[in-house]
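Recall the central idea of this unit: under ordinary conditions, the amino acid sequence of a chain determines the structure it adopts. In this exercise we apply that idea directly, starting from the sequence alone.
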Amino acid sequence: MLDRLREVEFICLAVDWLEACKRRQPTELAELYAETAVFECACGGAGNGCILVGHRRISEYWQAKLALPAPRPFRLEQIWPEAAGIALVYRFMDQPPVRVSFQFDTAGKIERSHCRPELALPLATARGIDP
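Accordingly, the structure predicted from this sequence is:
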């Protein structure tokens, strides 16, 4: 498990990631990723996901995603440490929640992220909180 100080640092980096999405700042978002980072998105369902390798490819992906003309309200639902990093659940507009798991390198950059639909909010369910 990550030590407590690193957990807090990595939680802050995951929140920075979401804030860059909220502000539609793909350059700032891409700067959070390591040069050799891997981004895996399974939000499109079976067979419709993507795996991108490298800072440049990830940057291009987010440039296109965040350039859409519609307003981009992102809302944090939950965030917690996992054995290998940090998990964050957010909502985009009124769509179902999305879970992103982050793993970080020793320099504090995202070396791997994996997003997928979140079918149930784990902490809300476990603690009986109404999100």
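The first helix runs from residue 4 to 22.
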